[in-house]
Amino acid sequence: MNGLTRFALTYILLVVFSHAAFAQLEVRYGNDTTEGLLKKIPTAKWKYHKGDDVTWAKPDFNDTAWDSVKANLDLDELKPNYFNGIGWFRLSVTIDTILVNKPIAFALSHNGASEIYLNGKLIRHFGKVCAHDSGEKRIDPQSEPFAVAFTKCKNNIIAIRYSNTRAQQYYTKYGENVVGFYFKIRPINSAIASYASSGEITLIISMSIFGFFVALGVLHLLIFLFYHKQPANLLYSVFVSILAMAFLTSALAQTSPLPDYSIITKHYFALSLPVLFLSLLAMIYMLFKFKYTLYFKICIGLVSSFIILDFFHIQFLLDIQPILISVLITIVCFDCGYRVSQAVKQKKDGAWIIASGVMIFLWLIGIFYLVALLSGGINISEFDFWAILLLIMFVLIILSIPLSMSIYLARDFARTNKNLTVQLEQVQILSQQAIEQEQEKQKILNEQNAMLEHQVAERTAELSEKNKEMTDSIRYAQRIQKALMSSKNLLDKNLPEHFVFFNPKDIVSGDFYWASLMHDGRFALVTADSTGHGVPGAFMSLLNISYLNEAINERQLTDTSDILNHARKKIIQSLAEDGTADGGKDGMDCSITAYNFKTKTMQYSAANNPVWVIRDNAILEFPADKMPVGKHDRDTVPFTAHNIQLQAGDVVYTLTDGYADQFGGDKGKKFKYKPMQDLLLSICNLSMDAQKEKLTNAFNNWKGALEQVDDVLLIGVKL
């Protein structure tokens, strides 16, 4: 049988930490006559009856009809409602005459509340006994001894009134199946001495080890936070932190008087045990750079599923929780042993250091469990050879992995330091060579810089002159574009109160407004956004204006849809021969409105850009055809002409998309159309000049220091 097979068979038996892996360590004091006589008193079988009646404390009460039970009831073995939160236990004790009127000690431990009666007299209580949770106070006396004295030899009746109203709740949620109490009768002196010494020893040892592991966990967590390239430090921090919680939980369970807290803490610590070993396995994978196998992923899935399902408090899972935890840990431990064996076999750097610590940890835990399983617990009655051997093994379990990790990290640090020293020497040599080369280069660069500065000065002067020429050309183009767009005099003569908010992104613009008297006497106003902005947009705007002028003034078209249809046809024809596959796709988004101010009627057609009318402090949004004036999938579909009856006081707004698409505000987002409509509603009652000022200020405040993204055009006409 090879080593790997022996390892697998051993850990199939291992159910590490799942239940009773480490029994309570008890140091016994020497026997005397009193202790020998007290041991003969039978305390295993008690009379029990559920419910509550104070007459059951009387020594002459007939309890022959009561059930004989162990004082610590197991809910797994009881009938439903056998214990309903409160009950009485009675025990008849006969003692030797030597013990009459001699101080002895009673010691109890339980998860509820109790009142102890001796021969009908209340001698001690722990917590507050009550049949209702609101009135009950649960206390675990932790076997704290208290002095009593029997006044007769026979028929001494010990009656214990006991309550635990949360027993069924904790059984359902946490699998805590023990109710009742543990009861001992001991010599007073040895009981007090044992209680004091065991409590102090438990706290000192447990809290010392807890502090040691917490310090290790914090140290490696800090290392991980400052050096993320080695995530094994995080996993090691998780591993030692859970180990620290093991000793904290042990100390609380043996010293805390709060049973509720101890039950919950022990339950969730049991849940963390698979995570403890899984973090160890993941650390081994990372340290030795193993690929995450399907087996490893199955382990993660099983542990995660187990923890998640626990929150649903499924009774079946609670019943088999110790077995499930044992199986999960066994599976993970098997892979731990296998991986470190593979790392050693493959002669990976430092593998033997980590492997020795991991294997010592796993093997000694297995030995401890087998000893506990075969002997029913680990009890040290005196410090003989076996006791010392067990304590040495226990210390090795605690220190094996931390010590091996420390050695590994120290070795790695020393190697890194050595490499850094060698590299530093090489750097110094290279630095000296680099300094000499740099000095030579600097000399050459100084000569070249002087020549380059002269060339740059000449080139800068040339570029400045060309830039001035280009800017002058663009400004001349701006004058041409303004000349072709409608003049202020034309608008003032033919429109009632109005404003034009025109804010190009560049010197010249793709957005434009154009107006003309039509042959039927109406006044046409176009608000348009040509394809592009800047110089390309400006060229496109000139082409668009020429075709609009041709439609209205040469062909004398008066229907707004016919005007846009004609402009679209001419644009497609003009650009179809530009040499590209998409020829003719440029054009414009626009709205054209034809006003008859005598009849207060308006006809409009719109390509992508809407027309808004504010009437009685409400906004009316008139839709646009979803296609441009240019080549498009729907360029054979004619534009739609809409006839609108206006009213006195109406304000008509036509616009392009530049205002709404401007980025700005605290979050650098678009202004958008809905806030723009809200802004217009808030200022519609102002004069048109005041509206323009408000719109200008709002736009500049929104844009702030950000760049303007597009040309902006917004025209308002008030009837």
Structural class: alpha+beta
Q: How many strand units?
A: 23
Poorly predicted runs of 5 or more residues: 1-31
Strand arrangement across the biggest beta sheet: 2-1-4-9-6-7
CATH superfamily of the largest domain: PPM-type phosphatase domain
Q: Could you report the average pLDDT, rounded to the nearest whole number?
A: 82
Topology overview:
Elements: H1 3-13, H2 33-39, E1 45-50, E2 67-70, E3 72-74, E4 86-93, E5 104-110, E6 113-118, E7 121-126, E8 146-148, E9 156-163, H3 167-174, E10 178-187, H4 188-226, H5 232-255, H6 259-287, H7 294-310, H8 315-319, H9 321-345, H10 351-375, H11 385-484, H12 488-494, E11 498-503, E12 511-517, E13 523-530, H13 534-554, H14 560-575, E14 587-596, E15 601-607, E16 611-615, E17 618-622, E18 629-630, E19 642-645, E20 651-655, E21 663-664, E22 669-670, H15 673-683, H16 688-703, E23 712-718
Antiparallel strand pairs: 1-2, 1-4, 3-10, 4-9, 5-8, 5-10, 6-7, 6-9, 11-23, 12-13, 13-14, 14-15, 14-18, 15-19, 16-17, 16-20, 20-23, 21-22
Helix pairs in contact: 1-9, 4-5, 5-6, 6-7, 6-9, 7-9, 9-10, 10-11, 11-13, 13-14
